[in-house]
Amino acid sequence: MRDINLLQWVGANAIRTSHYPYAEETIAALERHGILVIVETPGCSIGSYNDQLLREHKRILDKMIGTHRTRANVIMWSIANEPTNTTRPDAVNYFKELAFHVKELDPTRPSILITGEFAHRNASTSAVSFRDNVILKKVFVCTIVDYLPITEDKQTLRM
């Protein structure tokens, strides 16, 4: 409750969860106080991409979205925080698979990828090309740098 009071005191109206699952009660308390939430997976600093990790990441997304998708204050799903090597083909395929999986689970909300890399500059050839938004993370600053929605056929991006 104290954290919510502090958020309101500084005039904040939204938060992005950390890289661990938040309790359902916390998201509910934020909802009662009108605080919007970007819910994030514990996929932090991923740099190696394989089928076993992809299955686990999808399982976590299934649980996260299944738990919170009926919450009115949840506005986005964060697929991962600061993955590395996002221009490698295995990373591109990995995040493409996750982005489409999130859209199947909840087509009503955007997905995001938080990155500290400059992959957004090569948006068509990196893992960032398959999400709805990218947040470029700099020291103390986060900004949405571009918007490239996935098309209806789920194969290409609308530019």
TrEMBL record:
The chain positions of domain Glycoside hydrolase family 2 catalytic read 2-111
Q: What GO biological process terms are annotated to this protein in UniProt?
A: carbohydrate metabolic process; glucuronoside catabolic process
Q: Which SUPFAM superfamilies match?
A: (Trans)glycosidases
The family annotation for this protein states: Belongs to the glycosyl hydrolase 2 family.
User: Which GO molecular function annotations are given, in alphabetical order?
Assistant: beta-glucuronidase activity; carbohydrate binding
Cite the InterPro entries for this sequence: GH, Glyco_hydro_2, Glyco_hydro_2_cat
> What protein name does the entry list?
Beta-glucuronidase
Taxonomic lineage of the native organism = Eukaryota, Metazoa, Ecdysozoa, Arthropoda, Hexapoda
